[in-house]
């Protein structure tokens, strides 16, 4: 019975580990200026595998991507030019993430939105856009939260689940027959 409980606990811990949305995936960072399609070279553009620590570092801010979002840490106080788009895009370059379903700002002590006005966050299935046109910032951090559609399990996952349940049932039935024969 202890083995069954241990196996069940292991299965639960395995399924919760897969809830980490961004960990281990590759995201592309690109700063954009004037429009949401015009790249600006801030020296940090490129692909980043998400792990522990800061992934993107520019002279103004660092981006640390976590499992379900990212944190921007501002290094100095300044403000951005007020043009139609002045921000960055994070892209799922390998198309390995489920489609993004929401994108919002969390805790904030870096962006001066109460003085300069709100920033604009937009997204599509594979891209997250942060447009902080004209917004000021100071040394501090701002959190961004991301949600995505839960991935649909592959048929192989269901096959493994059914095989495991069948094996568990076989073991229990065998044990019951063995106990009945010795009684």
Write up this protein.
The chain has 183 residues and is α+β, with helices and mostly antiparallel strands. 26% of the residues lie in helices and 35% in strands. The strands form three sheets. A five-stranded antiparallel β-sheet has the order 2-1-7-10-9, with no helix packed on it. Residues 12-18 have low confidence and may be disordered.
Descriptive labels:
35% strand, alpha+beta, 183 residues, five-stranded antiparallel beta sheet, 26% helix, elongated
Instruction: Give unreliable regions as ranges.
Output: 12-18
Radius of gyration: 24 Å
Task: Describe the sheet with the most strands.
Answer: 5 strands, antiparallel
How many helical stretches? Answer: 3
Q: Report the portion of residues in β strands.
A: 25-35%
Helix content: 25-40%
How confident overall, as mean pLDDT? 85
